[in-house]
């Protein structure tokens, strides 16, 4: 039984109450009694509105389901379909011309272009690695990955052949982005003066070397003859350090398994540690005990002797939970659970208020802003709700209006189709929009679940709507003034061990005009930063037409498999692929509480997986089952065979609990079955309700 305390009629978990009252409120001089009274009033006002928005989602989905069922077997006429969606209010009128009015935005978001990390809040070591990924060693990134087209390192120690290849590639990179007035970086000798072809690129000196700028990003060339690399280098250069992860999203949502007050307090405590600047983590590696903490700032000395502080850390967003889920950490007067997104907004903002008031070791926002990413919003009504909620939180915490900035995840179909109206609903606080293939695909399948069977999962990436979605996002953002004020972002590269492939493909993101994109690791951030040196995003935007927005016909094209008859082998192959990915993720979520990790796919390639990937796999299987492409017996056959494969892939994990043969006792396997066989009835196809229920059973057991 949870120990609870009464706070203005709210039944608050005692541990959460202690955390808030002892660690969050005193530094910002907030009276606990007044705070909880304000929270109770806020929840009383917003919880019913939150529930009404979810009811509205269900009502729209029921109308769409009925429309498709009533036209079963008939081709979809786009004009008729769009007219229907407008009639029921799924599509809303476009707002008139407007420009966002967001102010006080840090340059990492507004005027710089570079990589973005997303990191689970419950893993302190990962949090610190991500926060410290503002600067990354290009030499290390090349030496330790397949990004460099050269023979891999040989032996356990330093391989001078591999090292020479890294150094040569580094010199070639410098020649491209900060060329010398004469000659090449490769021919630079010790003690020679560095004269640039474009002198304005030289910013001055750091504690370790020279600092340069290209396309708004800094590059540090480190000179240190005391190191093995520097001692053998003709110019004494020991490293090239790139400004890499400009921003990091600290995630309380898709990448974590947080189901109760214990989990939420751990999450909030890590966020507080990052904001205060005192988060540390000790861990064992290679037989040694290591300690990780936040990186200190750097100092730049300009040619005229003036010093400037350079942030040593990535600028932090915090991703709150969406509108759907509730959490037992706080019970309302009627006994129901608090909407988790409301709780997140209040507590993460109260923590961040310490930063706004200058009470932290390093500081996060130099502009006095709090950056919150809000996921899984469906359409402008829900964006307007978030705007009003943030107003109320600012009033509760006595913060100036629009201190709380919002990032709108463009990852639900109703948001994509009404993106301009969504931006308008938060136009004075928006700092971020992005495309997310994974959740957007899951919502695509669920919204049109009864329209017919979908094409195979891999083929969806080539669908008509995907190209329109990616292009519309940037074009609409530019049309409404996001350039120079906010981020327009792109999605994740999911394969952290395939950096060469990432380098070949991910340059496409800045070429679209997006000024950030997600990467799976600090190393990937360092490598992806090179793309923003190759592509001047803000210069590119000047030649892009903000009027060139693809129409809704392409965006709303449903990826149906009209007239396709797959062979039994093809059906089995597709089911196996979905089942393996689903089980590999769910077993860690349920049994170990791991919400994001590198999960081997069916070909044993490690992919970064979170709930968004799971949503696609479960919804795709549910769709094929609903339309008779496969039988329940075929699905169960795939689930059982893939359970054995996943068991084998995790055999070296001492904490792993096998699923194969434990069909009734493995809660993870039963959860995976529910995600498929109950997939049609899940709200918007989300996986959270079932995952949370099964994880709570596991924790209770």
Automatic annotation (TrEMBL):
Residues of the Malate synthase N-terminal domain: 18-72
What residues bind glyoxylate, as annotated? 319, 411, 436-439
Q: Where does Mg(2+) bind?
A: 411, 439
Q: What InterPro entries does its record include?
A: Malate_synth_C_sf, Malate_synth_sf, Malate_synthase_TIM, Malate_synthG, MS_C, MS_N, MS_N_TIM-barrel_dom, MSG_insertion
Tell me which residues bind acetyl-CoA: 118, 125-126, 255, 292, 520
Q: Which residues form a coiled coil?
A: none
Q: Name the EC number(s).
A: 2.3.3.9
Q: Which residues form the active site?
A: 319 (proton acceptor), 610 (proton donor)
Q: Which residues form the Malate synthase G alpha-beta insertion domain?
A: 158-188
Stored Gene3D superfamilies: Malate synthase, domain 3 (3.20.20.360), Malate synthase, domain III (1.20.1220.12)
Question: Its catalytic activity?
Answer: glyoxylate + acetyl-CoA + H2O = (S)-malate + CoA + H(+)
Residues forming the Malate synthase TIM barrel domain are 316-545
Alphabetized UniProt keyword annotations: Cytoplasm, Glyoxylate bypass, Magnesium, Metal-binding, Oxidation, Transferase, Tricarboxylic acid cycle
Q: Localized where?
A: Cytoplasm
Q: Where is the Malate synthase C-terminal domain?
A: 570-674
Recorded hits in NCBIfam families, A to Z, give: malate_syn_G, PRK02999.1
Query: What's the stated role of this polypeptide?
Result: Involved in the glycolate utilization. Catalyzes the condensation and subsequent hydrolysis of acetyl-coenzyme A (acetyl-CoA) and glyoxylate to form malate and CoA.
Family statement: Belongs to the malate synthase family. GlcB subfamily.
Cited PANTHER family: MALATE SYNTHASE G (PTHR42739:SF1)
Note the subunit structure.
Answer: Monomer.
Protein name, as recorded: Malate synthase G
Record the organism. Novosphingobium panipatense
């Amino acid at each position: 039984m949870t120990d609870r305390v009464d706070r203005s009629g709210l039944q608050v978990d005692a541990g959460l109450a202690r955390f808030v009252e002892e660690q969050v409120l005193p530094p910002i001089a907030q009276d606990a009694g007044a705070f909880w009274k304000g929270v109770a009033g806020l929840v009383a006002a917003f919880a019913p509105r939150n529930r009404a928005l979810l009811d509205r989602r269900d009502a729209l989905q029921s109308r769409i389901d009925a429309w498709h069922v009533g036209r079963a077997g008939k081709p979809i006429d786009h004009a008729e379909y769009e007219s229907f969606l407008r009639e029921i209010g799924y599509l809303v009128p476009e707002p008139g011309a407007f420009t966002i009015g967001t102010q006080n935005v840090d340059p990492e978001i507004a005027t710089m272009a570079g990589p973005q990390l997303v990191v689970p809040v419950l893993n302190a070591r990962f949090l610190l690695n991500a926060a410290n990924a503002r600067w990354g060693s290009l030499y290390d990134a090349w030496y330790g990955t397949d990004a460099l087209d050269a023979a891999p390192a040989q032996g356990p120690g330093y391989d001078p052949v591999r090292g020479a290849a890294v150094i040569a590639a580094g010199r070639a990179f410098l020649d491209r982005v900060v060329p010398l007035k004469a000659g090449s970086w490769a021919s630079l000798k010790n003690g020679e003066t560095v004269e640039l072809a474009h002198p304005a690129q030289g910013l001055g000196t750091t504690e370790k070397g020279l600092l340069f700028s290209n396309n708004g990003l800094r590059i540090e060339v480190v000179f240190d003859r005391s190191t093995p690399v520097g001692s053998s280098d003709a110019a004494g250069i020991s490293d090239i350090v790139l400004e890499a992860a400009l921003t990091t999203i600290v995630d309380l949502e898709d990448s974590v398994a947080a189901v109760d007050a214990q989990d939420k307090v751990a999450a909030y405590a890590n966020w507080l540690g990052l904001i205060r600047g005192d988060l540390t983590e000790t861990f064992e590696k290679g037989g040694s005990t290591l300690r990780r903490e936040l990186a200190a700032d750097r100092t730049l000395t300009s040619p005229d002797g003036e010093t400037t502080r350079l942030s040593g850390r990535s600028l932090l967003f915090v991703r709150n939970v969406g509108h759907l889920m509730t959490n037992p950490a706080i019970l309302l007067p009627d006994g129901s659970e608090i909407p988790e997104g409301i709780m997140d907004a209040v507590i993460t903002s109260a923590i961040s208020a310490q930063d706004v008031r200058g009470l932290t070791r390093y500081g996060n926002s130099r502009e006095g802003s709090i950056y919150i990413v809000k996921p899984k919003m469906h359409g402008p009504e829900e964006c307007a709700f978030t705007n009003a909620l943030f107003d109320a939180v600012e009033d509760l915490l006595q913060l100036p209006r629009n201190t709380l900035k919002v990032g709108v995840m463009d990852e639900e179909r109703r948001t994509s189709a009404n993106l301009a109206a969504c931006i308008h609903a938060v136009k004075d606080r928006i700092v971020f929009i992005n495309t997310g293939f994974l959740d957007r695909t899951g919502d695509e399948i669920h919204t049109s679940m009864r329209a017919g069977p979908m094409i195979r999962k891999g083929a969806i990436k080539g669908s008509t709507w995907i190209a329109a979605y990616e292009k519309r996002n940037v074009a609409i953002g530019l049309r409404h003034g996001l350039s120079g004020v906010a981020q327009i972002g792109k999605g994740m590269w999911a394969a952290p061990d395939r950096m060469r492939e990432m380098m070949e493909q991910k340059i496409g993101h800045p070429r679209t005009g997006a000024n950030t994109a997600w990467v799976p690791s600090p190393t990937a951030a360092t490598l992806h930063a090179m793309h923003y040196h190759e592509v001047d995003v803000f210069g590119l935007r000047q030649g892009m037409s903000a009027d060139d927005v693809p129409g809704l016909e392409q965006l709303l094209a449903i990826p149906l498999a009209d007239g396709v008859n797959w062979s039994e082998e093809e059906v089995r192959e597709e089911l196996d692929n979905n089942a393996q990915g689903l089980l590999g993720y769910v077993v860690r979520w349920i049994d170990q509480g791991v919400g994001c990790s590198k999960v081997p796919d069916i070909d044993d390639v490690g992919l970064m997986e979170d709930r968004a990937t799971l949503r696609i796999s479960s919804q795709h299987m549910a769709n094929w089952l609903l339309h008779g492409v496969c039988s329940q017996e075929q699905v169960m056959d795939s689930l059982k065979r893939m359970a054995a494969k996943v068991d084998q892939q995790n055999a070296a994990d001492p904490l792993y609990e096998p699923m194969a043969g434990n069909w009734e006792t493995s809660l993870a396997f039963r959860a995976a079955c529910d995600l498929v066989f109950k997939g049609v009835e899940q709200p918007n196809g989300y996986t959270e309700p079932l995952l949370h229920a099964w994880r709570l059973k596991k924790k209770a057991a």
